[in-house]
Design a protein that fits this description.
single chain, 15 helices, 2 strands, globular
Length: 309
């Protein structure tokens, strides 16, 4: 069925016809105009009677719907700034290890012999190195530091190059390193190589989601993280022998960040998320905050992860 343009009055009529309480139409019009009906509508599922009955539960108010939307925005902001810290850390560590071992000029650190000799990855190695060189050529002239090194020294060291590389490319770079180099980097975060290979694309996925203002709180990733000590320590419930939280949901990202963030940064991040959850709880009336936590994959005792080693 074709979707056609609807005025603000028509949008409000639709919401009301689905049993949503609107106590101030001018306020709702202002929100819909600024934030977009489509995006606000993406937060309706927790307030619906069922997937088959798309009407809102009794007592559901537009202000609650917007409160969840606003919570998700604040959540994205908190996660994004912390993911950027991880991104900077990963870039710095990889560039340091490769420069120390293979040299700091492009011809040295981008030599194919520095990377895995697995014949199955030959094409990936060559394609990724071409991609990196292309990003250097395209983005290098737009950054003061890269222009400075190119103009004054005739080369751009890797610790400068990583600034113009996307997190996705840097994460892929890790996948083609020699195993001993992967181990050196993983050891800094006190995780296994196999786990870091899973963690990096998940972090990159959430980074892009946060940057583009997509729905975050209920996001599920394609990759699942392996069971960690935190699943057991938090006594996360199981269903059919499988943990129901912290596998491919937002809490799995929190577990990853527990490993890769500095302790102080992680503590502050969780404190900020907890504050936003408490603020949201005070604005919900037709549903309980536990319903939001469940959708996020957060166990009720999620705060305890801060004190766990």
């Amino acid at each position: 069925m074709e979707k056609i343009f609807k005025t603000l009055d028509e949008q409000i009529f639709i919401l009301k016809s689905k049993n949503l309480i609107i106590d101030d139409e001018e306020y709702v019009k202002s929100v819909l105009l600024r934030e977009n009906y489509f995006f606000i509508n993406g937060y309706r599922y927790l307030f619906m009677k069922s997937l088959n009955d798309r009407t809102f539960i009794n007592g559901a108010n537009f202000r609650e719907l917007y409160a969840l939307f606003y919570f998700d925005r604040q959540l994205r902001n908190i996660l994004f700034k912390n993911i950027l810290i991880v991104e900077n850390n990963i870039k710095s560590i990889i560039s340091y290890e490769l420069s120390r071992k293979y040299g700091f000029k492009e011809k040295k650190y981008l030599n194919p012999s520095n990377f895995t000799n697995d014949p199955k990855k030959n094409r990936q190695v060559n394609d990724l190195l071409k991609k990196i060189k292309r990003q250097i050529n395209i983005n290098g002239g737009q950054h003061t530091a890269t222009k400075h090194y190119q103009s004054n020294y005739g080369y751009i060291p890797l610790w400068i190059v990583v600034k113009v590389l996307s997190f996705g490319i840097v994460g892929e770079l890790y996948t083609i390193l020699k195993h001993e180099d992967q181990e050196e980097i993983a050891k800094i975060f006190d995780v296994d190589v196999e786990n870091l290979l899973i963690y990096l694309p998940i972090i990159a996925n959430y980074r892009n989601l946060c940057a583009h203002e997509d729905i975050c709180y209920e996001h599920k990733t394609q990759k699942e993280i392996p069971i960690t000590k935190y699943h057991e320590l938090l006594n996360i419930p199981k269903m059919n022998g499988e943990y129901i939280y912290g596998i491919n949901d937002l809490f799995s990202l929190i577990i990853i960040l527990k490993y890769v963030l500095r302790e102080d940064d992680f503590h502050m991040m969780l404190k900020e998320i907890s504050y936003e959850l408490d603020y949201l709880a005070g604005r919900l009336h037709s549903i309980n905050i536990d319903k939001v936590l469940d959708r996020m994959g957060f166990p009720k005792n999620y705060k305890e992860i801060v004190r766990m080693d």
